[in-house]
Design a protein that fits this description.
5'-3' DNA exonuclease activity; PHP_domain; TIM Barrel; 11 helices; PHP domain-containing protein; binds zinc ion; Pol/histidinol_Pase-like; 2 domains
Length: about 290
């Protein structure tokens, strides 16, 4: 990357949380880089859910547009009763430990979806094959509830996907099984084993969880080596930002921010929340991979 000093300065603005078509975003990694540059940001991170499948394309785009990029992923984990999203930056994707982590999660999720389909198929006209037929060509995300919903629509049980999500596919449905995920402790261990940097995403997102991570739970993760907390995110309200900032300052953690951009998939606007370039520099200093 060029102009490194400027891009990594306190005045530079980085969006450190962005999704592309490699998970549930609607744009390609190339479009992410292009739009971030046009917007006047100084850098972005790609953080698709539970995958690094977009990294090759984003590396190409970073070069093409001469624009700084941090490679990352957003890993879904659990901690007691709380679903926790963890941003993993600049880890070695070829490290066995990470390969195993992603593979075993995918395997467990596939099995869970099959079990849900088996139960639904006893009462409704869908099959495993009719669910698999809903998975788009080349799609790299794991088959899950959206595909069951689409199969139910195709079978004429519902008029559209959201009706299916209000009914059989809802998390309160009798057919629902929770998504298998690694624990927060496992994610920290694996990402660090692969030389990466781990940050808890939107830990103050009240709407996502009945129970947020407590200060004590976060402090346990810090003792295990947690690198940072995402502070500037639309789902962290003012009080939560203050709580998380206080914990981060007390323990000298990296404080990050990002839009959680999904293209047209969510209202979040690219660059609506950012972190200064010095934060990108701190991530780069700890990660085993370089900035692009
Ligand atoms: Zn998230
Ligand atoms: Zn996200």
């Amino acid at each position: 990357m060029t102009e490194s000093n400027e891009a990594l300065s306190a005045a530079a603005r980085w969006d450190l949380h962005c999704h592309t078509r490699f998970s549930d975003g609607t744009y390609t990694p190339t479009e992410l880089v292009k739009q971030a540059k046009e917007l006047g940001l100084q850098g972005v991170a790609i953080t698709d859910h539970d995958t690094y499948a977009g990294w090759d394309e984003v590396a190409h785009a970073a070069k093409q547009y001469d624009f700084p990029v941090i490679r990352g992923s957003e890993i879904t984990a659990y901690d007691m009763h709380t679903s926790v999203h963890m941003l993993a930056y600049l880890y070695d994707p070829e490290n066995e430990v990470m390969i195993d982590l992603f593979a075993s999660t995918r395997q467990a999720r596939l099995k869970r979806t099959q079990q849900m389909v088996e139960a639904i198929a006893k009462d409704y006209p869908i099959t495993w094959d009719s669910v698999l037929a809903q998975v788009g060509e080349g799609e790299k995300t794991t088959v899950g509830r959206p595909h069951i919903a689409d199969a139910l629509v195709q079978a004429g049980v519902y008029g559209n996907r959201s009706q299916a999500f209000d009914g059989i596919c809802s998390s309160s449905s009798q057919y629902y099984l929770p998504t298998p995920s690694p624990s927060t402790h496992e994610v920290i261990r694996c990402v660090h084993a692969a030389g990466g940097v781990v940050v808890v995403a939107h830990a103050g997102a009240i709407a996502r969880n009945a129970e947020l991570l407590s200060d004590a739970q976060i402090e346990t993760l810090i003792a295990e080596g947690l690198d940072g907390l995402e502070i500037w995110h639309r789902d962290n309200d003012q009080a939560q930002r203050q709580r998380l900032s206080r914990i981060a300052r007390d323990h000298h953690l990296i404080m990050t921010g990002g839009s959680d951009w999904h293209g047209k998939g969510k209202p979040n606007l690219l660059g609506e929340n950012t972190a200064p370039g010095i934060v990108a520099a701190a991530i780069a200093e700890r990660g085993i991979l370089p900035l692009l």
